Amino acid sequence: MMRRAHPAALPSLAALPARARGALSALALVASSLAALAGCARDRAELPPGMLVVTQEQTGSWVRNFNPLTTAAAARWPTLAGVYEPLFVFNSVRSEQVPWLATGYEWHEGNRVLRVTTREGVRWSDGQPFSARDVAFTFQLMRRHPALDRRGVWGFLAGVRVIDPRTVEFVFQRVFIPGFDEVAAQLIVPEHVWRDVQDPVTFANEQPVATGPFTEVRAFRGQVYELGRNPHYWQPGKPAFEGLRFPAYPSNDRANLALVFDEVEWAGNFIPAIDRVFVGRDPAHHAYWFPLTAGVVYLYANTTRAPFGDVRVRKALSMALDRNLMVDVAAFRYTHPADATGMSESYAAWRDSAAAAAGDWVSHDPAGANQMLDRAGYPRWRDGVRRLPDGKPWRWEVLCVSGWSDWVRASQVIARDLREVGVDATVRTYDFGAWFQRVQEGDFDLSLGWCIEGPTPWHMYRWLMSSATIKPIGQASAGNWHRYSSSAADSVLAAFETATDPAEQRRLSSAMQRLFVAEAPAIPLYPNPTWAEFNTRRFTGFPSAENPYCDPSPNKMERGEILLVLTSLRPR
Amino acid sequence: MHYLLRRLGFYLLAAWAALTINFFLPRLMPGDPASTLFARFKGKLDPAAIEALRATFGLTDAPLWRQYLTSLGHVLQGDLGVSIAYFPSPVAEVIGTGLGWTLFLAGSAVIVSFAIGTLLGVVAAWWRRGWADSWLPSTLIFVGAFPYFWLAMAALYVLGFTLGWFPLGHAYSDDAVPGWTWAFTADVLRHAALPMTTIVLVTLGGWLLTMRNTMISLLGSDYVNLARAKGLPSAQVALRYAARNALLPSVTGFGMALGFVLGGSLLTEIVFSYPGQGYLLVQAVRAQDYPLMQGIFLVITLAVLGTNWLVDLIYLWLDPRTRDAGS
Amino acid sequence: MSRADATQATGLGAWAHAIRRDRKALSGAIILAVFALVGIAGPWFAGDPSALVGVPLQPPSGAHWLGTNGQGQDVLAQLIAGTRVSLAVGFGVGLAVVLLGALVGVTAGYFGDRVDALLSVFSNVFLVLPGLPLAIVIAAYLPSGPFTVALVLTLTGWAWNARVLRAQTLALRRRDFVAAAVVAGESEWRLLLVEIVPNMLSVLVAQVIGSTVYAIGAQVGLEFLGLGDVARVTWGTMLYWAQNDAALLTGSWWTFVPPGLCVALVGFALTMLNSGFDEITNPRLQLERVWRAFLERRGVPAGRSTPVVREP
User: Fold this and answer.
1) How many whole angstroms separate alpha carbon A503 and alpha carbon A513?
2) Does B108 map to a domain?
3) Would the CB atoms of B147 and C224 count as touching at under 8 Å?
4) A residues 401..420 contacting B (CB < 8 A)
5) C14 Cα to chain A: minimum distance (Å)
6) How much is the pLDDT for A75?
7) Which pLDDT tens digit goes with each residue over B175-197?
8) How many domains in chain B?
9) What per-residue confidence (pLDDT) applies to B327?
10) Could you tell me the pLDDT band of residue C196, with boundaries at 50, 70 and 90?
11) Neighbouring chains to B with at least 3 Cβ pairs closer than 8 Å
């Protein structure tokens, strides 16, 4: 669509005195040249045929990096799930491991050895065959360079060896069944290329040789890059389209504008009021699906400080919180309040509804909370603030990260609600680094925080209540910032590490949930949605609530899930 | 010559001060980039990997003064280190991708604004109490009082988003292939039009006022009256006699303004997703990317210092008295 | 020139005079007074700015005159609450910047020699360092909040004032009345505080005003980037949240137009006040006024002629 400033809009020049005429004609010149510049604007998104336009990373300009292993750099999307591929892809919606570069696995020697069979007929994008040797090489490489070992597999592995070109064996240090999930998610690099790489940590890998559906860098400029299809891809007939294109947008806002104007077809952004802003503009083609699979936001109470060691206090504080309001204000109603198991939707298959129902401390009940605290022996003084038995007032800061707007809003609601039950609570925002140091070292009273997500509840509950994850106050702890542990939890978690039978795993998972509901080690607030918007004008086959074959978000690259989408999309 | 050398010495001192502030400030604060990287993985990164990362990034426990000397030495050799947010790209390369755009945007905006503002100032002073003098300054001051980025947002909303006259951002169309072609130049100008106009609008008032006020003072001085009395043409008196000398304060301000506009244009860049230093700086700050932050700040400072030195040269040409003072 | 004259010509009295006599200064003063009043008294009348009063992003209506923001808070209440913090930080920084500048500038100008050389180099270095990038870098590392913003802006903004005040001090030192005081044997500090500083009062006030304009603008910029305390309501954080809640995308102009307009109005008012004052106190502009009045009384059209003023 074009709009030009019509020359007739300017007053007739002849009617003006000579001096003014000069000035005005100069103005007219400026105006018409502006209009000329503007005239060809907004060329209504003629998108390149066969290329899916995606925005996932936000940056001012692209830096060429396709190194799938290093943790030192962010590799360009979809290096982690589209260029390179893992042994198994984890489908978080169906909660299952999908065989990918591997076709199966078996436990041997009392579950201390994991034998993985690799797929036949897979070729690297340069035509060389893929084999078990590449798998072993990748793991050896990570052993030599710990900065490549982002999942810490060498914390439980003792060795890796090639049995034959289709079989590789992982020897574990001890029986550790959850270790399979980490081995399964590992991206594999070609030995024939990477053995000559001097420093794989700093290697930018500008011309990736990989097994994924999109491996050919067709263009790479500051503002845009394109990936073309892998000529040797192992799934016949896939991918069903030419390639991917990535314009650089520096902010959420800018990326959203592009999405709304049909310049982008797949995005993983937060958009407020999405039904009106995005879907409303083109209901036939603009669609989204926000499944609640991105982990639960928690309020952590430092259990090493009084009175947070007291389970009654933790539960009462939880009851004081109006989670419905929080969901409205902080999350634009894209989610719902968490239940007392603290599990997100990605654990739906594991959830024990009886355990969840027993947790009455997640419903909003300020009166009940006040009663509970009165009975627990924390009297409310005349100033409205409760005191510890030693007379110290309940004056706490709720920590959160400045700029993380959903958290800031949630903590504002929390501080407001806590004042209702006699806590002099204020929100304190810190820059990420400062905040992170505080929570890791246990230097806080109350803080918002994320919780780790993994294929099984073991990952999450280990982070929330295992003594193995605790470090003393003052030392940085990777998980369990609130420093809660119990021997009951430790023994259930330990049992899960050696359980291979699904029924047994389920029983142990229920036991973990019951423990969590009884003890409230941390206060779950709401599950985070994963963001996913798509434009179906040119492509179909996106996952949706009607067709939930996997997680729809381009952000879900941790365990290769994007591959499921990339190999399912079809041009119209 | 002595004068210019002395100024050069001063700029070197300023550059050193910028480096020093920039080195110590972030390091005295809590948190370090490796732990920020950890945040990118939201706790999914193994702690052992973090330790390895610290070593990779060269975050050593050496005494601060030794790190300082090392870093100073590297900068002198033109080595700005390796960016952490864009690891493993060297800082120089990351900055290089955006520096040209920032200098183009801020530089041409300052020049355009200086030229138009100064000219309008001459006009306002010459036809004092006239139409231009009574309305132009107030209007421009009002426009100039808006924050840069706000005006940018408003322009983007009305002219870009609602009317669709201008592109919504970037320095050129995604499909354009950079090169010295007419098509590409037109494309770049089309993309620069809105951001540049907002910067020019905001800064115009300052130039106008400075020029107008100095001109008015000079128009009353003896030599201008003499020139008039001799019957020289008005335009010649205004431009050759009054304006040339009235330029001095504006030229002095020019160097300073560049720093100021560069600061403001960083915000404008962010609004228009213009691929310059603005977005990079904010990102470097958020990622605690010390080397990148240091590099950007250093480069911006050097740009400002360089301009100031150029301004000194121009000043020397405009005001011969400086030449005498120097020797 | 006697001491009394000097004080009168450059003292605070001139401001009152300027506001009475000059239309620009008067309009600036009025706008400013309105904002000051809103900032001081407004929060008692407007509701709690962080109360969640309704559906987010409602356009202006009878119930919410400026609509609601992305969190469902009343924009008008926020604007009023923000006025107080933003003006306080603005004027606070304006004052602090000039005080720091005066301390350095006057000391340098008065004591001269080595002190001057050292301090001048110091302030000139700060003058050429690009302020906003430096402020961004510093602000990122301090705990966020209005105090941090104020501190950062003071640290990056004082140098210009120091330079101007140094020149002013140098000029005053050469004046007769100061020389007389030196001869009379007054102590240096007394001389400085009683003779020199009071004579610069009007310049100082003009500088406070100028610096406040800078401070308000820079503060809004920093907060817009999320470098302030985003949990606090100020004009800058309102804009930050507007951007965060995709004001452009949702077309909710009422969340970002009012704070921007307020910033502009305050900046405009301050600049008008300053230029009106300049009009009154700048001897040449002042004389011209008298000259015009003289000509007009005699029915002669006031042309381009400007009376000549000799340098004192």
Assistant:
1) 15
2) yes
3) yes
4) 403
5) 39
6) 87
7) 777 778 888 888 889 889 999 99
8) 2
9) 38
10) confident
11) A, C
Which residue from B261, B246, B251 is spatially nearest to B216, judged by alpha carbons?
B246
> Tens digits of per-residue pLDDT, B117-170?
988 888 888 787 777 777 888 888 888 888 888 888 888 888 887 888 888 777
C127/B256 Cβ within 8 A: yes
Can you give A435-448 as a three-state secondary structure string? HHHHHHHCCCCEEE
Q: In the structure, what pLDDT confidence band is assigned to residue C93 with cuts at 50, 70 and 90?
A: very high
Interchain CB distance below 8 Å, A403 and B286? yes
Q: What is the pLDDT of residues A146-184, one digit of tens each?
A: 889 888 899 999 999 999 999 999 999 999 999 999 999
What is the spatial distance between Cα B242 and Cα B122, in angstroms, rounded to a whole number? 9
Mind telling me how many Å the CA of A59 is from chain B's nearest CA?
8
User: Residue B86 falls within a domain, yes or no?
Assistant: no
- Surface-to-core class of residue A68, CB atoms within 10 Å of its CB (0-12 exposed, 13-18 middle, 19+ buried): buried
Q: What integer best gives the mean pLDDT of chain A?
A: 87
Could you say which of C144, C244, C250 has the minimum Cβ distance to residue A402? C144
Q: Which of A447-451, A458-462, C228-232, C295-299 has the lowest mean pLDDT?
A: C295-299
Q: Under an 8 Å CB criterion, which residues of A touch C? A: 252-253, 256-257, 260, 271-273, 276-277, 325, 328-329, 332, 402-403, 405, 408-409, 411-412, 427, 429-431, 434
Residues of B in contact with A203 (CB under 8 A): 88
Q: Can you list the domains of chain A with their CATH numbers?
A: 50-63+206-292+531-571 (3.40.190.10), 79-194 (3.90.76.10), 296-527 (3.10.105.10)
Find the closest chain A residue to B288 by CA distance.
Answer: A433
Phi and psi angles of residue A157, each rounded to the nearest 5 degrees, phi first = -85, 150
Q: Residue A161: left (phi > 0), alpha (psi -120 to 50), or beta? A: beta
Range of the domain at B166: 95-326
B33 in the same domain as B150: no
Residue from the list A276, A412, A429 with its beta carbon closest to the beta carbon of C144: A429
Of C52, C229, C250, the CB nearest to A277: C250
Q: Do A403 and C230 touch (CB under 8 A)?
A: yes
pLDDT tens for residues A530-553? 999 999 999 999 999 999 999 999
Q: What's the distance, CA B288 to chain centroid?
A: 23
Cβ of A149 and B48 within 8 Å?
Answer: yes
User: Residue A273: which of C57, C144, C243 has the nearest Cβ?
Assistant: C57
- State the pairing for strand pair A102-108/A539-540: unpaired
Q: Does C300 have pLDDT greater than 70?
A: no
Q: How many angstroms away from the CA of C204 is the closest CA of chain B? A: 19
Q: Considering the entire predicted model, what is its pTM?
A: 0.79
Would you say residue B88 lies in a domain? Answer: no
d(CA A90, CA A100): 10
Put simply, whether B39 touches A (Cβ < 8 Å) is: yes
CATH of the domain at B109: 1.10.3720.10
ipTM attached to this prediction? 0.80
The 10s digit of each residue's pLDDT in A487-510 is 999 999 999 999 989 999 999 999
With an 8 Å Cβ cutoff, is A295 touching chain B? yes
Chain C residues near residue A332 by CB distance under 8 angstroms: 56
Peptide bond into B88 cis (omega under 30): yes
